[in-house]
Write a structure and sequence with these properties.
Blueprint lengths: L2 H12 L21 H11 L1 H6 L3 H12 L11 H20 L8 E2 L1 H14 L7 H6 L3 E2 L11 E2 L8 H16 L1 H20 L5 H25 L2 H4 L2 H11 L18 E3 L10 E2 L11 H9 L7 H10 L4 H11 L3 H7 L3 H35 L15 H15 L1
Parallel strand pairs: 1-4
Antiparallel strand pairs: 2-3, 4-5
Bound molecules: protoporphyrin IX containing FE.
Protoporphyrin IX containing FE binds next to helix 8, helix 17 and helix 18.
């Protein structure tokens, strides 16, 4: 079998994408009650919104640090759900600690958090900062465990504010991720079939044509479903709440000054961690939908070529924040021969189905841009801020972002 064919078979057996990039095992909400540190962290995460609202989180963490700076979190080796929960809890508390006062962010995370975050993230070979995967993909539970994922049946495990607006913001993302499982499955199967057709030199058959059209239609229909969900953002998450409250907690560490005299020095130090003889300082981005693997995977499967502009580079940087199996899926989709096959076979039906799928990718991006305008541009303008200086929570300059991805999607379809 051709090497790429083997890769498709391996991916086919190791992924079950009925829930998209959400894990099949539901995330766990708390750490096991097996150590004093675990118990304290469970307590803090359950009261994170009250502590932040009262401006007392930093005090609470400082006290914890004084009591047990060298304590290690206790989780079962190899239990990935517990690891994800531990990382989520530690990073939400750390992010709250940094941004409790958005005007004066803290530039050093205390050892009790820093050492545990660093060692868990090192063992997973991932960035020690809150990502979209933590804040969305591993941060939900089913209200009724006998029912499926839906807007009515999801709630987050942890929030910064405790407000229903933040819960809705997370829920919308989780449900879009779940729904898009159908598009990802279709994109994968279409690419796999294109590969089989190419490598086995099969004569072109109507069955293959019908099958490929069905996969592409599934992508279009799923994107329409995802757009419907996206359009409900404002039903439960007020743009003013996002702009004035939530956005600050999702900010990246490149916005934290470490030296008041010098604007160029930014980042967050990890107290108690030593790398090459000194305390590390990290400047990671905040969580952002740009770290979701859905769009890059679909772009890749459909053979969409974006302009190599500054946004290309920025969005590629976001991919480093994705879990490794999601990155792998995107890379395999980049090898898809689907577009080439469609361009070679002269089938108007297939070409139309492919163009339609690209069209809906563009429409999804357009709808998303409207959200960015409502939730970021308009409130910023009302405050008299220049839109040229705005950056997203992921830190990308919005003046470049707005339109650039949408335009290059539209130009391909
Ligand atoms: C109020 C809601 C939302 C706002 C204000 C918002 C804001 C942003 C911003 C500012 C960016 C640019 C990157 C950055 O610096 O963060 C971005 C990118 C992105 N967001 Fe959102 N977003 C929202 C909801 C969503 C949802 C529900 C999804 C679905 C998963 C999503 C998916 C994406 C994707 C895929 C990108 C990368 C750009 C692309 O490939 O077109 N966003 N978002």
């Amino acid at each position: 079998m051709h090497r790429l064919g083997q890769v498709y078979e391996v991916i086919n057996t190791m992924t079950d994408i009925q829930r998209g990039f959400l894990t099949l095992d539901n995330p766990v909400s708390h750490l096991p009650l097996t150590s004093p540190l675990n118990i304290r962290l469970n307590h803090i995460i359950s009261h994170l919104p009250e502590l932040l609202r009262a401006g007392k989180l930093r005090q609470e963490v400082t006290a914890l640090n004084a009591e047990m700076a060298n304590a290690t979190i206790d989780i079962d080796d190899g239990n990935i759900q517990q690891q994800n929960a531990a990382i989520l809890i530690l990073l939400m508390i750390a992010q709250g600690y940094v941004w409790e006062n958005p005007c004066q962010p803290e530039n050093m995370i205390p050892a009790i958090l820093a050492r545990n975050i660093y060692s868990l993230c090192k063992s997973q070979q991932r960035f020690p900062a809150l990502t979209y995967a933590d804040y969305v993909l591993y941060n939900w539970k089913l209200k009724d465990s006998s029912k499926e994922i839906s807007l009515d049946n999801i709630e987050p495990l942890a929030t910064f504010t405790g407000q229903s607006d933040e819960a809705w913001f997370i829920t919308i993302h989780v449900v879009i991720e779940a729904v898009c499982g159908k598009a990802l499955e279709a994109a994968f199967q279409a690419s796999r079939l294109a590969h089989v057709v190419k490598t086995t030199h099969q004569p072109w058959s109507p069955t293959v044509e019908i099958q490929l059209c069905e996969y592409l239609e599934k992508i279009s229909l799923t994107l329409q479903e995802a757009m419907d969900i996206l359009s409900k953002m404002q039903d439960g998450c007020d743009p003013h709440f996002y702009w004035s409250t939530l956005r600050h907690y999702l900010n990246g560490w490149e916005k934290v000054k470490t030296d008041t005299d010098n604007d160029a020095n930014h980042g967050v130090y990890f107290d108690g961690v030593v790398i090459h003889g000194k305390m590390p300082k990290f400047r990671y981005k905040g969580p952002s939908g740009a770290q979701s693997s859905i769009m890059p995977a679909l772009d890749a499967a459909l053979g969409l070529n974006h302009d190599i502009d500054e946004m290309y580079q920025t969005l590629l940087a976001f991919q480093q924040y994705m879990p490794p199996n999601h990155m792998l899926f995107i890379q395999v989709m980049k090898l898809s021969e689907l577009k080439h096959l469609i361009q070679t076979i002269n089938s108007s039906k297939l070409t139309e189905a492919w163009k339609n799928a690209l069209h809906y990718l563009g429409v999804f991006r357009l709808e998303h841009l409207k959200l960015v305008q409502q939730y970021i541009y308009h409130p910023a303008e009302k405050q008299g801020l220049s839109t040229l200086d705005l950056t997203g929570t992921g830190g990308s300059p919005l003046s470049q972002y707005l339109g650039s991805r949408y335009e290059s999607t539209r130009n391909n379809s």
